Amino acid sequence: MTWFPLTALLPLIAFGNCDPNIFQLNKYSTGSTVTFDYVEHGAKLYLASNDDNSFLKNIEIISGGTITTLDTINGYTAGYTPMSLTITGGLSLRTTNNDTITNVLTGYLYVTTKEQADDPSFAVYVLKNRQAITTPDKKSTVVILNTELVTDSTDIDKPLKTSYVTAINQSPDTNMRFHWGFPAANWTNVTINQFFENPLYIENYDYDGKLYNSTKAFFDNVEPLQIGLDCWYITTDGPAVAMILESKYVSNHVYTTTAVNATGLIVNSLIYKQHEVNFLLDYTRTRTVGTLISVFPISDDYISFYLSENNGGQIVQNYNKKTNIKHGLLTTYMQASKLTINSTSIFPGVFYCQYYGFTGDLIPVTSTVVQTSSTISSTSAVSTSTVVTTTKSSSTQSIIQILCITVALVFFLIILI
Ligand SMILES: *[C@@H]1O[C@H](CO)[C@@H](O)[C@H](O)[C@H]1NC(C)=O
Ligand SMILES: *[C@@H]1O[C@H](CO)[C@@H](O)[C@H](O)[C@H]1NC(C)=O
Ligand SMILES: *[C@@H]1O[C@H](CO)[C@@H](O)[C@H](O)[C@H]1NC(C)=O
Ligand SMILES: *[C@@H]1O[C@H](CO)[C@@H](O)[C@H](O)[C@H]1NC(C)=O
Ligand SMILES: *[C@@H]1O[C@H](CO)[C@@H](O)[C@H](O)[C@H]1NC(C)=O
Ligand SMILES: *[C@@H]1O[C@H](CO)[C@@H](O)[C@H](O)[C@H]1NC(C)=O
């Protein structure tokens, strides 16, 4: 019988591949027992659910011979520390809810790795109403598990689950990054899934496209951030950061920043309608604006990001399924009064756009720029359309280079006007 040696090998293979995971409660049909592979001994399991305890009670988790019904881990221990279950030998799930009930469940299970479970700087929060959080000091990872949004809003593009983040209290010495998804086993090495950063490190390129240094832009004014994702996580490096998280939706199709120096965020995960951000401006000073974009379009329809000036100056970034981008940072020098993000599709795909603007010079305008630009100074329209045609993250840099050059031209034309 070759059966036994084969199955005996499986745990060994699994051992090297323990990955954190998420299991949606609406996926499991009544009566059967599902066993999850690759769950590590010592890992922690969390429940993120707004579902009725009378339904959660019918779902059993089996680990190390112990049976736990989900209603008993649907809550908090001290303060806002969510209850959790330590995995002590495999993980199985069994439900006696019928499929009608199972289909309406919105909650999910989240399993870490053992390393994450043992790490005192690794925290997990389950967001149900409103809670103040403080990240652990120095290096930290904070996972936010959203639960189903309860809202009166009639907006068709409202998220199903969301965190509304306000009152961020952060030292300029702390690097803080927001990431989509949940932390992978190698999460400290994954740096491409960041959709919001404060401070931003803006790379400065010369006109040959060579990186010569970077400027740190810290924002003490962060607009309220609507993060319409099932889950996401924060990493920090530096003194602790405090903030308020709420499971709340605030309609923001037309939004005006609350300060001249400001950063904010537009996230889409499902149905999308046009968003506009109006920037407060100070025309007596030069201005740097930009976007940090990751886009995963699912159709040929473009998702377009316009930075527009009142005088008609405009920079457009277009992405469709042939042209997605991860972590693309665009920096431009213009008095953009508005950011518009729109698409011809109502299901354009997932995207993340951090926007920012601040007064003051970033790159000194050298005489070389003026000479280069003067050759096109007769161009009538101050408009640049950039269609990015690559999917690799390594392309990010060249996009920025191209944009830096076009931006320099636009900037010069603006000066002429
Ligand atoms: C499913 O379970 C619920 C709650 O126990 C019950 O009200 C409902 O009638 C059941 N539906 C079916 C199709 O069995
Ligand atoms: C992450 O990178 C560090 C070096 O920066 C390395 O020592 C470590 O093994 C890497 N971890 C994983 C899980 O890839
Ligand atoms: C992290 O692990 C995943 C597989 O789980 C792999 O695809 C990815 O390349 C790794 N990233 C880094 C930066 O090591
Ligand atoms: C980057 O270089 C510019 C021009 O040389 C300089 O003005 C600026 O201070 C430098 N910034 C940093 C952070 O070194
Ligand atoms: C998107 O907004 C831009 C800038 O306001 C506008 O020119 C364009 O027509 C809009 N496109 C769609 C599809 O609504
Ligand atoms: C905006 O930021 C710039 C660069 O950090 C700074 O020089 C300027 O004073 C700030 N303006 C306001 C109104 O805070």
TrEMBL record:
GO terms for cellular component: membrane raft. The chain crosses the membrane at residues 398-416. It comes from the Eukaryota. It comes from Caenorhabditis brenneri. InterPro entries: Glycoprotein. The keyword Lipid metabolism does not apply. This is CUB-like domain-containing protein. GO terms for biological process: innate immune response. Keywords: Membrane, Signal, Transmembrane, Transmembrane helix. Residues 1-18 form the signal peptide.
